[in-house]
Design brief:
There is one protein chain. The chain has 254 residues and is α/β, with parallel strands linked by helices. The chain contains 9 helices and 8 strands. The strands form 2 sheets. Strands 2-1-3-4-5-8 form a 6-stranded parallel beta sheet, with helices on both faces. A two-stranded antiparallel ribbon has the order 6-7. α3 packs parallel to α4.
Amino acid sequence: MPFPYQAEDFLLYNQAEQPAPGEGGDKKAPPAVQTVQELGQTTVPVSETNIFCMSIIGQIEGHLVLPPQNKTTKYEHVIPQLVAAEQNKAIEGILIVLNTVGGDVEAGLAIAEMISSLSKPTATVVLGGGHSIGVPIAVSSDYSLIAETATMTIHPIRLTGLVIGVPQTFEYLDKMQERVVRFVTSHSNISEEKFKELMFKTGELTRDIGTSVVGPDAVKYGLIDAIGGIGDALRVLNQMIDRKRSGQPAGLTQ
């Protein structure tokens, strides 16, 4: 494939690096050179698609700002994207890619509720990990997949920092935990008994409570629908989109 950029582009950039007398030297590189510098690519793939892809990575940031060295997904960024995707008539399906350690419980539940309330077909893919509050997000879509090597950590809600009035705080945490359990069990095929058994299992995690579930086990327990990756998720999404176009009821074939 011929090189898409001319030598003049890079020549212009090299000249721009040397500010002319009396100038501040703030000239910008040509778009071609910026692409090479920022993305390490000579071409940027541009495609028009009817599927919107959103990634939820790192730690889910809620009401408190996390330290700058943390890789975070801010819920105030995710929610407007979902609203825009719902309103955009050109978008017919939404793909959510997960690799998260969890984070703020209320922010995670807010994202999960948003995804579950979308009118357009949705699919989630857990790559690497979908831990803690990432579990409700993973099961919030119409169809969920997990990579064979990915894991999901299921554990009770934990609290750090100042605790005022221990009985009241415990009651609040218990109610919040029931919200998580109710959401997960209502959006997946796992039973409440099995989910709580995994949540309160001792002997596996550092704090001696909770369970780390690998991809095949997540499917076996009914937490996730199937083992798969991006290609499988896109195939399932296209099936759901086709069925919606034809007015057929929801239903998928693997």
